[in-house]
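Homework help board

Subject: predicted structure for assignment chain

Our instructor gave us this sequence and asked us to write out the predicted structure in token form, then describe one feature. I got the tokens but I'm not sure how to describe them. Can anyone check?
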Amino acid sequence: MHRPALRIVARIVLLGLVAMMAGCAGDVPESADAAAAGESATVPTDSTSDADDRPALLLDPTDPRWAVQAPDTYRARFDTNKGVFVIEVERALAPHGADRFYNLVRHGYYDGARFTRVLEGYIAQWGLHADPRVTAAWKDVTIPDDPVVRGNTRGTLGFAMRGPDDRQTQLYINLADNSRNDAEGFATFGLVVEGMTVVDSLYAGYGNDAGGGMRAGQQGPVEEGGNEYLSEHFPLLDYIITARIEGDTAR
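My token output:
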């Protein structure tokens, strides 16, 4: 082979090697520089976030994250299949209730929950978890009573209960003036400040059948079957998509 031809072949081989090196360089992960410098390639996460362990957290009511004191005032936003409503809470009205509600909302307890008891012109109630295992874990985790400071007027929020010191996770919103319930100890601590028309529109066709009978102990099928049971037997129930504390950055 003549020398000019050899030079051409050598140049082609050299160009090929350069191209291969450039292609390999493009496959290096973005974290390689940090690793080479002795830095961790793992992206740090917010230490207060419980997104990754939320399923375990929901099953453990003894976790200290459930005992965080709520702010003096805060708002909870409920995104539902019917639209959005917002509840403003004043902790001073019922501190035990306001704290429990704050922590249940901020950790996603009500996500996916059905409005199981909607009685037109009376109340809209919810609070049994979508997963029956979570409902079972919380069934006997009660909070002490709060005195009734603000009555059960239209749009107010309180915890449902069967008797003294029995409030757990189930809530209700008054759809009318139900001040007659004040004497029974139903302490309200929140008020719907946006989207009351959404609350009024929640499906009430099942009445007490889907999730009534808390005091009579007739919620067993819902507790045992969760959303799977409700979807099969009461498919028209409205539901919560997500519930969040407005401005909360800990999640």
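Reply (TA_rk): Your tokens look well-formed. For the description, you could write something like this. Strands lie at 73-80, 83-90, 117-119, 123-126, 156-159, 171-174, 188-194, 240-245. That's the kind of observation they're looking for.
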